[in-house]
């Protein structure tokens, strides 16, 4: 008589732990590749897409973001004392809601508008972008505050993607410069923070999560920051909003292969949580090597609509396309993000 043995299916994280491996906690953005790869993916997804004009607008915007990031001027940064103070209390050292923004970000915003306009000939977004040439510093800072505090009331929705793009470049530059200046020794300027569901560098929400397939992070799940593009590890099958491991489901728009009756496994899914009724998209590189969290989130808005109709609330934030009312961050967020 033979007996059947049940073999548990382990997650990649569990396999790594049993093998004595250490899962890399975070991946900082790459100055040369971040916006270049995003632009490439946006143009791929735009082909034949119902939102073609908007995706091409986002691609042109991302192209200019790349150019500006390569030659970003010096800005005020936290010193070693401030970085160590943030590390001691496990807070992000560059908190989006409290960081005193360097005036240089406004200069780079105006540079972005100037470079973007001639690239938008024939695009419906050109008129809205042209109006931003005349926005004053006070109004610009007010709009930035609303964006970074996730307040929709009073936000200029037409201007928001361009202002957000300038803020993304600014924060990405700060993160990369801080790492370059202070991260070469034993001290790491960016580490684990109190709230695991918010970016450890700037405290922002993720846009989506991604399963990576590189040599050091094969098929581990990382949350992708909506502001500075840092990716930080979170185990799979765990809600990115309430951190529950119960009632997690995956929903997708299935496509049929022209040469097969079998449905393709979607590279973009919505991870829903029955405990808190929130969801976050997950993009899977093991199913499509070319996925990019921001671009594929924009190109899968239909999935958002269907999941929302089922009664789930979006947790992820895509600063290039805001919709709906954003709620406050999770209730366990510290009341003070430790700004300087």
Q: What is the CATH fold-level name of the largest domain?
A: FdhE-like fold
Under CATH at level 1, the class of the largest domain stands as Alpha Beta
* Count of separate structural domains: 2
The SSE order reads HEHHHHHHHEEEEEEHHE
CATH architecture type of the largest domain: Alpha-Beta Complex
Mind telling me the CATH superfamily name of the largest domain?
FdhE-like domain
Counting helices, strands and paired strands, the structural category is alpha+beta
Word description of this protein:
With 340 residues, this protein is α+β, with helices and mostly antiparallel strands. The chain has 2 domains: 26-182, Alpha-Beta Complex (FdhE-like fold), CATH 3.90.1670.10; 206-314, FdhE-like fold (Alpha-Beta Complex). It is built from 10 helices and 8 strands. The protein has helices spanning 12-18, 34-46, 52-70, 80-88, 104-116, 126-131, 137-148, 160-182, 293-298, 301-309, and strands at residues 26-27, 206-211, 221-225, 231-233, 248-251, 268-273, 278-284, 313-314. Strands 1, 2, 3, 4, 5, 6, 7 and 8 form an 8-stranded mixed β-sheet that branches. The chain is globular and about 50 Å long. It starts with 11 loop residues before the first helix and ends in a 26-residue tail after the last strand.
